[in-house]
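re: ur question from yesterday

yeah so i grabbed the chain u mentioned. its 152 aa long if i counted rite. heres the sequnce exactly as i have it in my notes:
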Amino acid sequence: MKTTMLGSSALLERPTALKTAIIRREHFNAAHRLHNPNWSEAKNQAIFGKCNNPHYHGHNYELEVKVIGYCDPETGYVMDAKVLSDLIKEQILDRFDHKNLNLEVSEFSNLNPTAENIARVIYELLKVQLPLDTELKITLYETPRNYVEYPY
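ran it thru and got these structure tokens back, copy pasting raw so excuse formatting
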């Protein structure tokens, strides 16, 4: 169902229903090292501190994947939760869980695996798999107190 609204000198059409978000929460464990190969060891240590450990360190990541769109009038779904769950498992968990991101995940072979970059990579891997008319937001918790959102 659509309504017509008077816009700035033009008639605009929009769905009467508001957008809805479906959010799937997942968990994965991964190791990484924050390191810029173009910098000296001293500069890497000064910038990244403990996160520059040459033997790596790990996190228990919490991931929230939010898909935003209009509900399908026939199903009532923005997206089927099972389909979203399977997509996250195939594209993210199977690729990242219990892995050394620097050594085992190709997306980080030339990209520093900061929480910001991990969230962006997750976004890029999932966005191409979603319906074109949906929006995607990624929230990645590296610790309970440190998290990133992409895009913002």
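noticed a couple things. Confidence is low (pLDDT under 50) at residues 1-14. also The longest strand covers residues 20-32.
anyway ttyl
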